[in-house]
Design goal:
single chain, 367 residues, mainly alpha, 18 helices
Length: 367
Amino acid sequence: MSQIINFLSKNKLQIIWPFLFLGSFFGAFYYFAAPMLWLDIKNVVEARLIWLDEGLHLRNIERMQTNNTLELLHPAYTAFYTHLSYIISWLLSISEEEISTGAFISGSRWASYLCIQVLLLTVFWRVLKILGSWKWAFLGMCLIGMQRSSFFYSITMRPEAPMLLGIVVAIFAATEYLRQPQFFKILLIFLALALAISSKIQAILLLPWAVIIGLLGLWISQIKDFRTIFLWISGALITLIGSLLLFTPYQVFNWQRLWQGIQSERLVQTFTDVNIIDWFKYTISNELIGYSYSLLLLFTLIHFLKKLYLNRKNLREWLGTPVPAFFVSNLILVVFGLGYVYLAVDVLISRYLSHVVPAIMFLTFIG
């Protein structure tokens, strides 16, 4: 009897431990985020004193209520985060006739916070599936959650939080697609990318990554049937366009205004003399990744190249296994995500690299 009790106790502990660790982590995350989530800001002027972009977002969301418009003040912005903030603000003020400025601020901050929390839970769930260990999954979640941009974007009124969520979902969908290419998985990749792009137009830089992942999956599974390939490509395009229409309709229907805004933004970004070496130094510095993580990333890349060489004769089978598929998905994203910024952007600002931070941290974690 005592042996049965001990056995059940051990099994219960194995089940309880993950929830205890997760509860402790999210409790600590909320403890440090709470002062900003409940910060008493009364108007646009006060919001702009903290971060200029917060004041702009607050003006946008208040315009939606007063003018009944989906048009944003900044022509280069997409609108999913604004829509999400409005919905949460409305839920917080459901008993009131009009949404107050304070409710808009709280709703916007909670929109960011909840997106990051869902992102972290997604990381834990998918890494658990890939590695089969809740301890490694918890470590990976902590690595992403304690990265400076994850915490910063969870407490500010900025569109990066849902953009990062979309990118992380796309990365895990790409991993599963490389392991076993299926129509549903390629649709999920483009649905997640649509979420990221409709949150912040910067994520459009990852479309070439999605195309390469799609082609790589076809090569791994040796799919050569033209009808199948045509169906998958058509489904991916329809999913991307349909999701953008759902998430940010005004910007899609008024794409000329969006395009002009993007061009104006590019002109603003090209007034200094910054080269690739400057961008590389900035990326590995403590301003973005950190020197210690960058060193670990270097060891990871060396180890991967060694594994790639050893498995060169059975490359398809090797890339179809969980960890190599996860690594390759992130590596290709980093290459394409950094490529345009390094070559075309001449302003050293960390947010221009925010779309590649999750992939860089995943590569470091794999190491």
